[in-house]
Amino acid sequence: MITAGIVGGTGYTGVELLRLLAGHPQVTLEVITSRVQAGQPVSAIYPNLRGHLDLAFSEPDPAALGACDVVFFATPNGTAMEMAPGLIERGARVIDLGADFRIRDLDVWSQWYGMTHQCPELAAEAIYGLPERHREAIRGARLVANPGCYPTAVQLGLIPLLETGAVDTSNIVADAKSGASGAGRQPRQHTLLCEAGENFHAYGASGHRHLPEIRQGLMEAAGGEVGLTFVPHLVPMVRGIHATLYARLHDPATDLQALYEQRFADEPFVDVLPPGSHPETRTVRGSNMVRIAVHRPAGGDMALVLAVEDNLVKGAAGQAVQNMNLMFDLPEVMGLQGIPVLP
């Protein structure tokens, strides 16, 4: 059995991670930390886990965490980079669901996250945890940077086009929408029911902190520069991301359906839908699946890609468990085969 610890188990990502790991047949949860809720049973904060998890929150203890096989960080940005070096020295492997290790250029990271990086050596070692691109590197990693929610949907939606050089990379557009859980559990005015309900708006249009992460992944897939316009939106639902992606084809005769079916044929968590489909966020709710459909509007030269995911699962906790499975040589789908909840 794999022993696991979670640092920061009280947010939406943390509880989703708890839900998945509590049902994982090869994982024993040993430590769940929260300074605010220390001493409280997990089921008192999250009653959906009652009868499934008999643990209490505790103060972060490097010795207890370092004794685990794997430690997940579901914490605000800046926390993992302070604790990860000591845990790795003790022999634990680390999966950070935050942004501390996602961006390789630490000057760019500091620009977007407003702080100086504390452990550049580990940042250089970290493997970006998108299995569909870095599966073999993840297997041997000591530290995995779990991708962000928007970056997962956008990259998976565009990778087949970029890897094959099928599109003009100078002007790609990613128009993405997310449910309110993507903003976290801390109260914020824009996610209050009276603010978010019956409302729909863009944000971060002049620059969003996921932009450099997405661009980094797309440039890697394309093997060169990528011009990207990324605009996120908040929609009045709890969970789910819908990304609508636009790129101009070099050859309008490109068989997009075949391209995507071939690229993702062996990917357990990417579902390429039949021609003419329009994926819905409700079809992935609670699951680790990304569903993708491709179109060529009016038979023109524009590739239109639609991608949906659950931002808390494939966009966060589920992908972290997928990465853990790879790191410990378990079946990649273990603990992640639940059927999406509908309606």
Automatic annotation (TrEMBL):
GO terms for molecular function: N-acetyl-gamma-glutamyl-phosphate reductase activity. This is N-acetyl-gamma-glutamyl-phosphate reductase. The lineage of its organism: Bacteria, Pseudomonadati, Pseudomonadota, Gammaproteobacteria, Chromatiales. Pathway: Amino-acid biosynthesis; L-arginine biosynthesis; N(2)-acetyl-L-ornithine from L-glutamate: step 3/4. The keyword Transmembrane helix does not apply. Catalyzes the NADPH-dependent reduction of N-acetyl-5-glutamyl phosphate to yield N-acetyl-L-glutamate 5-semialdehyde. It is found in: Cytoplasm. PANTHER family: N-ACETYL-GAMMA-GLUTAMYL-PHOSPHATE REDUCTASE, CHLOROPLASTIC-RELATED, N-ACETYL-GAMMA-GLUTAMYL-PHOSPHATE REDUCTASE, CHLOROPLASTIC-RELATED-RELATED. Belongs to the NAGSA dehydrogenase family. Type 1 subfamily. It comes from Spiribacter onubensis. Its main location: cytoplasm. The active site is at C149.
